[in-house]
Amino acid sequence: MHPQNPYPPPPGLVAPLGPPQRVPAGARTTAVVLLGAALVGLSTFGGYEVARNGGGRLQVLLWFLPAIACLVALTTLLQDTVYSVRSDGWVLEGTGLLGRQGIDLTRLISVTSTATGRAVQLVLRDDVAGVTVDANGLRKAGPAVLDVVGRAVWAGQEQGRYVVPRAAAGVWGMPTRPDAPATGRTGTAGKALAVVGLLLVGTVVGVVLALA
User: Fold this and answer.
1) Within this chain, do residues 180 and 108 fall inside the same structural domain, yes or no?
2) How many domains does the chain have?
3) What integer is the mean pLDDT of 100-115?
4) I need a labelling partner for 133 at 20 to 30 A (CA). Which of 55, 88, 159, 189 fits?
5) Distance CA 127, CA 86 (A)
6) Does 88 share its domain with 174?
7) For residue 173, what are the CA distances in angstroms to 105, 136, 209?
């Protein structure tokens, strides 16, 4: 049981979750290395087959489908993306590529976001780890979960730990500070570019091998 949560949760929240579950650093590093190697290998295969055998758009897609699946998995892992979120009022937890993982909402140190059209991804970090969750995922978890996360986000700003970006504030209709950035620095762009770079490297290697 969370030390600050000795009572049953309000309606809409789950029973006390205890300390947030974390992904072991060793397991995460191993998964990143394996997925990175698989991405390069599969994209090499795709590039080789396309350069050697050609084919229409559908055939090219089929050659690269395993590499694309690996790319999505690696991106999800690097960004700590979680789905099926839930909360007991203190811990926010979801399912990531390596299982359940969460953060302590009372110890938030960073709130940033990315926005693509109307879709907003929230990147929430406590003093140990972080999670990326889609704003619609929070809404689907229920009004109570959306409310408790919003209150935690607001409290962190009020205590001077960070400034909530405008895109994140818009999820709850919060007033924004004059110095609020549009989204904040999430670091996701650099990670996405690195993953795409692996895909391109593998593809080029495959093409070179096919033409050699």
Assistant:
1) yes
2) 2
3) 93
4) 159
5) 20
6) yes
7) 19, 14, 54
